[in-house]
Amino acid sequence: MCLGTRRIEEKIFTDFEKLSKKRKKEVADFIAYLKAKEELEATKEIIKDKDFLNSIMRGDEDFKAGRSKKMM
Predict the structure, then answer these.
(1) 15-32, pLDDT tens digit by residue?
(2) Which residue in 9, 18, 19, 58 could disulfide with 23, CB within 3.0 to 4.6 Å?
């Protein structure tokens, strides 16, 4: 993590502590929204990559058919 990011995070946490309980809930909701949005964008990227998507689907079919190895 770069120094700039560390400072931003420290400021966020410092400011967060000063908020009311209601505002903290709003911040938590907004963070959940941003996280879901980021995950959706990542999913859209995977779906665009047809080779990768087909590989995932073949792996899922292999797993359902019992063609898998235990990892240790």
Answers:
(1) 999 999 999 999 999 999
(2) 19
